[in-house]
Amino acid sequence: MSLSASNLPSQDPEIHQLLHQEWRRQEDGIELIASENQTSPAVMQAMGSTLTNKYAEGYPGRRYYGGCEVVDQVENLAKERLKELFQAYGANVQCSSGSQANQAALLAMVKPGGKILAMDLNHGGHLSHGHPKNASGVFYQFAHYGVAAETEQIDYDLLRQQALDYQPDLLLAGASAYPRFLDFEQLASIAREAGALFLVDMAHIAGLVAAGLHPSPVPHADVCTMTTHKTLRGPRGGAIVASKDWIKAINSAVFPGVQGGPLMHVVAAKAVAFAEALQPEFRQYQKQVVANAQTLAQGLLERGHRLVSGGTDNHLLLVDLRGPKGPGISGAQAEDALHAAGITVNKNLIPFDPAKPMLTSGIRIGTPAVTTRGFGAEEMQRLAEWMDAVLRHSEDTALLKQVRMQVEELCRQFPIYPEMEV
Ligand SMILES: Cc1ncc(COP(=O)(O)O)c(C=O)c1O
């Protein structure tokens, strides 16, 4: 099946034109959003399949609809592959997003009104970890831990004290913008000491964990949630792995707890992505993701930029735009200037940021997507040079245009989907 086999262009030229524009945007620009990636054509083919037509409430062998004999096999394959990938006891592959996976995990593990200790959103946490407007913050009592001011990393002794004082029902670890390894063994021992359950949201690092490049939370946590579309490089979605004690409760929290029919076309695409992640090439890819983040970090440090915590252990870095040798612009200005130059990043709060979330003092940069299209050390060095120039001359439209042309030229050498024509 090919995407061009459909009659979309004539049936719906407006949407077709927009799909074309987005395809070109992705091909012609440098994608540094740390939570994005580019799935394989095989993953996309599964997503564009007839499985989108099928209702399958329930679980394989126990569905509320007939005709599930094929999708049952698809879901079982996805589950088995996910378990193998993370050496997990149980797996649920039905969650439509990472936030929904978190919602299900909390529903299974904590009674409404229960106490949860999670990472502060302003220090790298996620909305679904207790933001007052998110369901998590509405239904549970959250306290938050942050990073230490001097190191900009989690201080596990301070966290232990906080957990012992707060006595949470559940300790939640995991972040959207934390460039360092998380010590899951220590976090688990803190949870145990405080009498709390231990939930890890490994959305960002799942691909690194699968490849053995970040310590795995799975042996230490009761439950781990994840997204499938970030470093894991699958379709947009969520998944959960759980210990023997928790998988049953997780399954019933996902269905009927937080959703009806699962997106079976996406479950099939997850199965394809998990099989890809089990291949030796995936480990090579993840090694390059980390190497690229380190090369880019080095290139920016050499040019006087300040990185939160001084560097990175994983796929992302946080640049503090203030500081004596920094460009002195806001995260929002940086995002706009880089965008004009064909480089996509997101503005991001940095720990203890005095700026508002829509402005911020930092940007978050990730290497999963550029690594997928084949960028290596040489391209990361060029990128550091371009980013430095753009950040320091963010109002020089001629310079932004010139970088934009160089970016496009480089991108043409690294097509993402060489066979595709949208
Ligand atoms: C740590 C973490 N958890 C959960 C999510 C939510 O994932 P989704 O956008 O699929 O709901 C994200 C997304 O960025 C994340 O970074």
Structural account:
This protein folds into 2 domains: about 45-275, Type I PLP-dependent aspartate aminotransferase-like (Major domain) (Aspartate Aminotransferase, domain 2), CATH 3.40.640.10; about 285-415, Aspartate Aminotransferase, domain 1 (Alpha-Beta Complex), CATH 3.90.1150.10. The chain is globular and about 60 Å long. The chain is α/β, with parallel strands linked by helices. It has a 7-stranded mixed β-sheet with strand order 4-10-9-8-7-5-6, with helices on both faces. The protein has a 4-stranded antiparallel β-sheet with strand order 11-12-15-14, with helices on one face. It has a two-stranded parallel sheet with strand order 1-13. It starts with 7 loop residues before the first helix and ends in a 9-residue tail after the last helix. The protein is about 45% helix and about 15% strand. Pyridoxal-5'-phosphate binds near residues 102, 174, 175 and 238.
